[in-house]
Amino acid sequence: MNNSKSNNFSLEFEGKRFLIVDDDPIIRMVMKSMLKNWDHIIIDMASDGKQALELIKQSYYDLVIMDLQMPVLSGYQTAEAIRSGACGELRKNTPLLAVTADLSDMAKTKSSQMNYVLIKPFDLEKLETAILHCLRPGEQLNKQAN
What we know:
six-stranded parallel beta sheet
């Protein structure tokens, strides 16, 4: 990955607030470290969908990056709650980036509430591409990064 591309992302996303939701603390830390080179972005973390909903009710997020398979509330259930207005009307259209290792057709169908689906494992370039898809809708049509 070329640093100039990451630097461009850093400038473009300055001041953005992201929420990383995953039950695995190592995955949360890896994703946070992948994004740490972007200056002046705020990253919050939650370990399940229930915690995520509480954080989303309290704060505005430009993007929620969320695992689909989690205890308490799955990513699917969390997305459904957000889209139905459980976090408030202003939060219903928050961009949601699904992160999953599940390649099944059922997972693809159930993730329709998401703006984009990123398949694990992924690298920084794929993560950056997925974030762009979520924050700049309509620039590309593919909803899945493999």
